[in-house]
Amino acid sequence: MSQKSNIKVLGAGISGLTAAINLAKSGYNVEVFEKRADCGQRFHGDMQGIENWTKKNDVIQELKEMNIETNFDCTPFSNVTVTNTKIDEKFDFDRPLFYLVKRGDSQNSLDQGLKKQALSAGVKIYFNSIFKPDEADIVATGPNPARLTVADKGIIFKTKMANTAIAIVNDEFAHKGYSYLLVVDGYACLCSCVFNETETLTDCFNKTKTYFVKKYNLEITNAKSVGGVGYFTINNVWQKEKSRYVGEAAGLQDFLAGFGMRTAFRSGYLAAKSIIDNCNYSDLVEKEYRKYLKAGIVNRYLWEHIKIGDHLRTIKGISILFHSVNNLRSAYNFNLGQRFKYRKAFDYIDKKYSTRIT
């Protein structure tokens, strides 16, 4: 494909705009079509973490290498607390475990920051616009609504509580998932994240809110509802004819904890690279993420089994895993132990989530 060719991107989320920015900076005429009225309107001020443990390099450095600036609020967290509501474990890492960003259409959100970068690079964004995926060069439409595997429900609010990051691992508070409280400079996000059995979500969230209010004398002011969904698949289709699928549209998601922003950035970048360098996108993304996705299946299998009826053991297991960032990284590299368990884990996941992830 020659320079100055017209490229159409469907979806103005992280992966779509990352691809668009890189293509525009390489001389392509890029048009992005977004079904909503503005970037970020899938979200409502939620705080989310860009994980910083699956690779040796810091994710902020990786963003720079992918031509993405941090022109949005981005707060590093090296201290986290994990609890089963009876036992608390505090962890202090020598580098940020994740970077908290705000999602939505507010001024300092990640989504608006990417929008500004795209427009500055010369990308044309058409809002309230849709067309068929097979007409797009890059499809970045987010999770498949027919095959959702994870959902979260929560609130954002103002509080006097100091900056903090606390996660609850207890099925009564988040079925097969986790609940969390995040606070940055008086802005807070409290959510429950459940896997598979989404009908438990409201009850889990109510219990989570009650726990945090009582445990920390949490003051909640100007609360607003937030929530979202996620999608993971074990049968990824990276490309159909000319259309390259990126981010959650391709089922790229951490099946253990649901962190997907880093993979969204990267897959968008790889889609752009495949066009710029005239190389095979499927080969690029397979090389980058096949082990990661297989590790996610094993991690999800182990998580669901270690949690059954024994939250104390869960905390002890997390203590071992969280001993260092290196241990966390190993858990996403499809290590030898994961390879031994993969077949059993795959069969379990395929059966339990068959209507959702195939």
From TrEMBL:
SUPFAM superfamilies named among the record's database cross-references: FAD/NAD(P)-binding domain (SSF51905)
Superkingdom, natural source: Bacteria
InterPro entries, per database record: FAD/NAD-bd_sf (IPR036188), Geranylgeranyl_reductase (IPR050407)
UniProt cross-references to PANTHER family, sorted A to Z: DIGERANYLGERANYLGLYCEROPHOSPHOLIPID REDUCTASE, GERANYLGERANYL DIPHOSPHATE REDUCTASE
Protein name according to UniProt: NAD(P)/FAD-dependent oxidoreductase
Organism (species): Candidatus Berkelbacteria bacterium CG10_big_fil_rev_8_21_14_0_10_43_13
